[in-house]
Amino acid sequence: MTQFKRENEAHEIEERMAAEIAAAKIIESADQMTAFYREHLINLLYMQADSELAGALGYVPCVPRAPTVEEYLAASMIVKDEFRHARVVYKLLENLGEDVDAHVRAHDFTMRVSDTAANLGSQRAAEDKRVNIFYYPIDSWVDFCMFNFCMDRGAGHQLEDSLDASYKPWARVLDGIFKEEKFHIAHGDNWVKRLAQDPKTHDAAQAALDKWYIRTMNIFGRPDSPKNKIYREIGLKKRDNHAVRIAFANEVAERCKENGLQLAEWKPDWDNLPWDAYVVG
Predict the structure, then answer these.
(1) Which residue among 47, 77, 202, 265 has the highest number of C-beta atoms inside a 10 angstrom radius?
(2) What's this model's pTM, rounded to 2 decimal places?
């Protein structure tokens, strides 16, 4: 390829992106979208909806593990919230012409890896679009609470990144999801404090943190992701993947310091981390 041809192609790409950015200021309906915008929006919506559904189904077995009737209710409300989140995001996809029922029938969202100590890293275990942390089983009430503490907090940071999304029907849906996600995070914070500050359960809390913190750190994608850059340019996200990860990690570190817990060292395998983060809630 000649230098002239490379420069010409680069110029065409820049012009195309400029046109896409200009067209994506405020989108209310499918007829306002370019094909490029629609492709990237649908990718994000499926990632979120599949994660919401898989998350809800993963939480269901945790309800009978609750230690009190009050916590039966709290855990059940979290499950209900996650199913509702899945439904409203799938509804957005239906409104864009997607066959959601066929998609859901094609995948087993109850599937979990059998080895609870497995390390998937950033790898996927099936063909659906859930974030891979939802392939791990939640084995105990302590696990459930630490999952709230880590993963729901990570989801909150990701959701926050799209609250002002250029696709306004999604932005309005995310506003309600984000508010409910704060309840899930508060539930985890309350229980982690109780578990960590009780000598009888401190070690179990630390072990659960070691497991779920590392897994959550793997969900955010690589820095300088080309697709993340596109999401930001067309108004579907605000920050680089790693910036979201760092905001999450700093918040977790602060909470752990308050509760006498130690954060495990996360050692990124940059070559194997996925380029793109998942939107979850």
Answers:
(1) 47
(2) 0.87
